[in-house]
Every structure is written in C-alpha cells, then in structure tokens.
Design goal:
The chain is mainly alpha-helical and 193 residues long. Helix content is 73%, strand content 0%. Helix 5 packs antiparallel against helix 6 and helix 7 packs parallel to helix 9.
C-alpha cells in the first residue's frame, strides 16, 4: 500500500482509470447531481466507508504527493461539495499552508456555494488549526442559518464548532460562541402566533 511507503503493486493506474470512468457517468444536472450526492453520502454512512481524508494525508506523508492530488480530485468529483477542499488540504499537508488557507477561506466566505461546502471548508480550517478564521466563519454561517431558518445548516455548524468550544477557544470566545448558538436556536424555534 503506497500510503505506507510500499511500492505500487501495478494496479494503481487501473484503479484510477476505473474510478474516473465511473465519475464521468455521474449526473451533471445540478438538481440530479445534488440528489445523487446525497444518496452517495447516505450510502457511505450505511456502508461505513471511512473518511478518505486520512488516506490522502497518509499519501502526502509517504511522499506520494502526485497520487494524493489525483486522489483528492477523485474525491471532489465523487462529492462536489468537497470541491477545492481536498485540494487545499493536500497543499497544506505538503507544507504550502498559506494558499491552502486562502482557498478554504474563499470557499467558506462565498455565499453562492452550497452551505455544506462552506461548512466543509470551515472544518478543514479547523483541521489546519486556523481556529479564529473557522470561528468567524461559523458565526457568519450561524447568522445565515438563523435568518434563513435553515436548521440543517445550523446543526452542521454547531457540530463543527462544538469541538472548539472547550479545546481551542478561550473562555470569553467560548462564551461568545455559545451565546450565538443559543440565539440561533431561538431564531429557529417555532413560535406561537
């Protein structure tokens, strides 16, 4: 297994070709693509498919950066909600953090992107220890979730921010985030007319 520094067993190119051929058959229509992506995520969860990020990181660590880049592109083709995120992480893992952080910040800040893609970029920033950037983005996303009554987005953001509350943020920052979460929950709560 090349992620552990072992040589290619001669099947790497074949495996890439098979996946790329399958990816070329995925729906391109946005509505169908989003439904397909949702089904893929559900299938991954049901089949307990492991997160592909650690394997990609292991490839970079084994000095297989070109393979890691190709693998990242395949992940982004299978799950376009990850587009740019895996590529940025590969950049960061190979030591080129500044452009990776800029790319992730651009994805997270762009309200034209799907909310899950923005949360994914925020999560990647957390992984890269860009806590302040990730927290600011999380706060913005919570505002958007509250205004648009998007409970799913709020839940995704809270899940990502929850790890930061006790581990990475100081007491004052943590209290501020908890207050924002509480106000978002209140905004999403059904109120009697």
């Amino acid at each position: 297994h090349i992620s552990r520094g072992e040589p290619d067993d001669g099947t790497l190119e074949t495996r890439f070709a098979v996946i790329q051929a399958l990816a070329s058959k995925f729906p391109v229509d946005a509505t169908r693509r989003e439904a397909f992506e949702g089904e893929m995520m559900l299938a991954f969860e049901q089949l307990e498919v492991p997160d592909m990020g650690p394997l990609t990181k292991a490839l970079v660590g084994a000095n297989q950066v070109d393979v890691a880049r190709r693998f990242a592109k395949i992940q982004e083709a299978i799950l376009p909600v990850r587009q740019g995120i895996m590529t940025a992480l590969v950049l960061a893992w190979q030591g080129d953090s500044a452009p990776a952080i800029d790319l992730l910040d651009q994805i997270a800040q762009n309200s034209a992107h799907h909310p899950s893609r923005r949360v994914g970029a925020m999560s990647a920033l957390i992984e890269l220890n860009e806590v302040q950037k990730a927290t600011a983005i999380g706060m913005t996303l919570l505002d958007e979730a509250g205004k648009s009554k998007n409970l799913a987005l709020a839940a995704e953001v809270v899940e990502e921010l929850s790890d930061l509350l006790d581990e990475s943020l100081d007491e004052e920052e943590s209290a501020h985030v908890r207050l924002k979460i509480a106000s978002t929950v209140e905004a999403l709560r059904p109120h009697d007319a």
